[in-house]
Write a structure and sequence with these properties.
EC number: 2.8.2.-
Protein name: Sulfotransferase family protein
Shape: globular
Largest sheet: 5 strands, parallel
Helix content: 40-55%
CATH superfamily: P-loop containing nucleotide triphosphate hydrolases
Order of helices and strands: EHEHHHEHEHHHHEHH
CATH class: Alpha Beta
Number of domains: 1
Strand content: 5-15%
Distance between the termini: 37 Å
Keywords: Transferase
GO molecular function: transferase activity
Organism: Sulfitobacter sediminis
Radius of gyration: 16 Å
Oligomer: single chain
Structural class: alpha/beta
Strand order of the largest sheet: 2-3-1-4-5
């Protein structure tokens, strides 16, 4: 199964809501970090690639999925865009200051959290996230600069007719127009807010 939609946006740009939206639109299953978090067996191939020197096999990493958003998949947006040339690219964005505030209260905390021995796959996730993020977000100024450079890089590399720059909170209309599908009657989903992420992080440590 080839990817039909590739998410190039950083985590904490509404990616989980976008995941749910793509599932509602019939473009799922949609890959997201939560798929790895909630299915321990899915962590190993990602860990093998980022930490173990395994060759990149996008078909393996995204096996069974029609779309992808969020890290770690978004880190491989260039490779995925080349591997799946018919796929459309969605670059989810938000105000850089708001993004940093959300990241620093969620993913940054997760990276610094000691996971219990009974959750080895969560330690694997921490390890491979540390590989591709490194110290890029060590300070607010550096993180925001990286965030803005990433947006510019995607816009420069992907043809305009293949790319949707999707602002957090834009709802169904621009997304459905880009994907050429009808607008659903139900409201656009709103999931994985900062509080929900923090609560889940606490659960994983208990």
């Amino acid at each position: 199964m080839a990817l039909d939609v590739i998410g190039a946006g950083f985590g904490r740009t509404g990616t989980d809501s976008l995941r749910e939206a793509l599932n509602i639109l019939g473009l799922g299953p949609c890959h997201h970090m939560h798929e790895i978090r909630d299915n321990p067996e899915k962590a190993q191939p990602w860990h093998d690639y980022f930490c173990g020197g395994a060759p990149l096999d996008l078909d393996l990493l995204f096996e069974g999925y029609r779309s992808q958003v969020d890290w770690p998949g978004a880190h491989l947006w260039r490779e995925s865009a080349e591997r799946y040339p018919e796929a459309k690219i969605i670059l989810s964005i938000r105000d850089p200051e708001d993004w940093w505030a959300s990241y620093s209260k969620t993913i940054k905390v997760f990276r610094e959290t000691e996971m219990p021995p009974e959750a080895p796959h969560m330690r694997q996730i921490q390890e491979f996230v540390d590989v591709f993020l490194g110290d890029r977000f060590a300070t607010k100024d550096r993180a925001i600069a990286d965030f803005e450079e990433h947006i510019a890089a995607v816009k420069s590399a992907i043809p305009a007719d293949r790319l949707l720059t999707y602002e957090l909170g834009s709802g169904w209309e621009p997304l459905c127009a880009f994907l050429e599908v009808p607008v659903p009657e139900k409201p656009y989903p709103h999931t994985n807010a900062t509080k929900a992420f923090q609560e889940r992080n606490i659960e994983l440590r208990e």
